[in-house]
Amino acid sequence: xxxxxTLHKYEQFLKAALAAGYELTSYQNYxxxxxxxxxxxxxxxxxxxxNSLRTAQLQHELGVIGxxxxxxxxxSFDVEVIQQIEALGHExxxxxxxxxxxKGDSKKAIxxxxxxxxKLRKYYPVxxxxxxxxxxxxxxxxxxxxNYNYRDYGIIAEPYxxxxxxxxxYITDTGRKWDGGSVSVRDKVKSKxxxxxxxxxxxxxxxxxxxxxxxxxxxIHPQRWSNDSMEWIQELLSQRLKNSIKKAIFVK
Length: 252
What we know:
The chain is α/β, with parallel strands linked by helices. The chain contains nine helices and seven strands. Strands 1, 2, 3, 4, 5, 6 and 7 form a seven-stranded parallel β-sheet that branches. It is globular. It starts with 6 loop residues before the first helix and ends with a helix.
């Protein structure tokens, strides 16, 4: 059996969804169309953008597209990678963390948001944004919108605000597992679905057995998915340490 959290395993996941009749597409496409069965492919590019490029290339080979959210930090915002992913037909969005960066000052944060949204729009006409969880910060970046409205900036949607997760089943690899709610600070949603999966193989089996809802959003962090053995081990050990810290100190 292949190791989990490799690109090989992710490819099996995507092919299982396709075989089960799901349309695999970006968040923006999902908003513009009425799909009977859909898997929204969301990617948070927290670091190692080259991993996101490899993921985007794999999806392109399979004839599907997704959404890639880039942070306003050097370990994420790689212009060359952004342009290459855009050229493959994927959607680009802003993975905002402005309130955390500006230490809770909403006036500074909105200026920071405007600045980085404009930078990103040099390479793609960004229409959707998604918050970065900033687990080491006490500030929830979504609270920026208590004082401002992202629609004033030409943004049509933010998934944590604009998806009904009682109708769209949400799966995320936060914590380097699919049932990482106990080590997730903010990447979680309220939902009526009573479904839980630990491994990618369990999700693949659920696709094959018709056990999943017709509307799904996946969120993966491509830095976690690698065929390189050394990189895979480094990410495994790093995530174990982060999970322990988050569970002990930050998860409320």
